[in-house]
Amino acid sequence: MSFHGSFLSDEQFQCSICLDVFTNPSSTPCGHSFCMGCISRYWDGSKVYQCPLCKKTFQKRPDLQINRTLREITEQFRSMKGGGGGLGKERRGGRGGDGGIPDNLFDELKKKLPRPLPKVPVMLTCEAQGDTISTSFSTSSTSLASSVPNDSPIAAMSHTCGPPPPPPHPSTRSNSRRRFTVSGAANSQSLPVCEIHNRGIMVYCRTDRVCICPECELDDHQDHDTVTVEDEWLELKAQLSVSEQEIQEMIRERIRKVEEIRMSVIEVELAVERETASSVCLFSMLVSAIERSQAELMEVLEMSRRAAEHQADAMIRQLELEVKELRRRESALAELAQSDDHIHCVKTFPALSSLPPAKDWSGVSVNSDLGAGTIYRSLAAQVERFQQELKNIAETGFPASVLEPSPVRTQPRMKRVQEYAMAVTLDSNTAHPRLVMSEDMKSVRCGDRHQLLPDNLERFDRVVCVLGREAISSGRHYWEVEVGGKTDWDLGVARQSINRKGKIEVTPSNGYWFLSLRDKNKYAFRSEPSTDVQVNLRPRKIGIFVDFEKGQVSFYNVDARIHIYTFNDMFSECIYPFFSPCTNKSGKNDGPLIITPVDMTV
């Protein structure tokens, strides 16, 4: 390294974009300096503004100003180097312009020195006050100046710079005085500066709960309890995990309560269904004088259901708001745990660590007791046929066991449906040419094009459907079909003698009894006219129950264990299971219908 390089390195005055001496230097908010023209061109046309050195990203393009102090320092250094071309040219092996420092000057000076020069630290201090700038070089050896000729450029440099001025007394400081580094405002990244004393803020006053600089501590906080900001944050950080655990536990409690309330709403729906079905059987035996009572009970049940839903929705919304706030605080605490900005952490932590006002939800629940039991008990004594009618309803009911524990209990009468499970397979001879079936004949979906299949009498050529092989001519039968997330499907039974060619009117009078889904949420039974069916919980598996002698076709939501709809008719001939996956709608409805085995253990 050359002798003049031990004072100042060329890189300190070199733009990292153009690799030449600064021209109108400007500093980015992250503290790095570049030529004003270079950094402006670097950002022109960009959507993201980053520092070329540290890659720090700025939300909007910084409004850069010329660093006048750095520019004057650069100009002084350029004049020391000979005043000519840029530093980059000299570094590439040139001898510099006229009047510059010769390349072999320092080698010649080394030969004239009596002993090797020690390595001495050099500090460049530039202070700006008003429009004046002072630049000084200081070394720990006095032999250097005495060993250099008076007419040399080095001597000229030492004469020009002079000794550093003594530091001013603290009482004479002013807010207009600034301190600079060669690379710009790099010190601002480490510590914020006190606006009064221009010193780094590194002390925390526990008495006043403020962050201060050491001089503030001496002037205004001498008798206060003060520690370093870092020590204060380390002590507060120990409390962070406790606050996080408390918030996490509150979140878990509220999530559990949300699930409990949702299950309570389902229980209310089931209770309303049970009470409505029972009341229909009971009041059908009574004289017309009490028909008004039946209508009033239906209205009360519906109002109870709506009130329960409204109450549950309000509680869920309040719980979700509390969970949202707690999660926000949890996220903020997690960010504080990773932050190195101690001042921000100390200021922010007290507000985040205090638990928000929250309601005690331990005793809150949705009451599912509809209060209809008293009415039933008073009428049971007068209606002898009530028990028989109730038994008939029980035989066509559905197992109310659930896939997961919930407040809804299993109804033993529902399990009787599963006792009539039968194995169902698809009949490929009846399948529409676009339908694609699995090898085990348990799954069917709609393909993109027609297949080359024989046009036999049994095959549907217009309606995209297929029948099951198993004929039903008597007794009770039950099977389950997985519909998954399909947007359209048809499931039910069809008469053996139905028309399978051309356009078909799919109604009970034409031998079709099935439930339909259209556009993901529109359920209907294809009667005359079509009967809309209200389904609150979207089923992923449908159960079909047929009582041939009673002429009943019933549909159930297998996952929720809920009865969906029952149609009553008379069957005069054999019927077959009916399946239609509907068209695939360009891939939106390409999922299959899958015949699944009935789980007898639930």
Commentary on this structure:
With 602 residues, this protein is an alpha+beta fold. Helix content is 32%, strand content 16%. It has helices at 36-43, 68-80, 87-91, 105-112, 143-147, 153-161, 214-220, 229-283, 291-338, 342-353, 373-380, 386-395, 415-418, and strands at residues 25-27, 33-35, 49-50, 57-58, 125-129, 132-136, 178-180, 203-205, 210-212, 226-228, 435-437, 443-446, 466-467, 476-482, 489-495, 512-518, 522-525, 531-533, 541-547, 552-557, 562-568, 575-580, 593-596. The longest helix is centred in the middle third of the chain and has 55 residues, at 229-283. Residues 1-6, 83-106, 108-189 and 396-414 have low confidence and may be disordered.
Please describe the topology of this protein:
Elements: E1 25-27, E2 33-35, H1 36-43, E3 49-50, E4 57-58, H2 68-80, H3 87-91, H4 105-112, E5 125-129, E6 132-136, H5 143-147, H6 153-161, E7 178-180, E8 203-205, E9 210-212, H7 214-220, E10 226-228, H8 229-283, H9 291-338, H10 342-353, H11 373-380, H12 386-395, H13 415-418, E11 435-437, E12 443-446, E13 466-467, E14 476-482, E15 489-495, E16 512-518, E17 522-525, E18 531-533, E19 541-547, E20 552-557, E21 562-568, E22 575-580, E23 593-596
Antiparallel strand pairs: 1-2, 3-4, 5-6, 5-7, 8-9, 8-10, 11-12, 12-23, 13-22, 14-19, 14-23, 15-16, 15-22, 16-17, 17-18, 19-20, 20-21
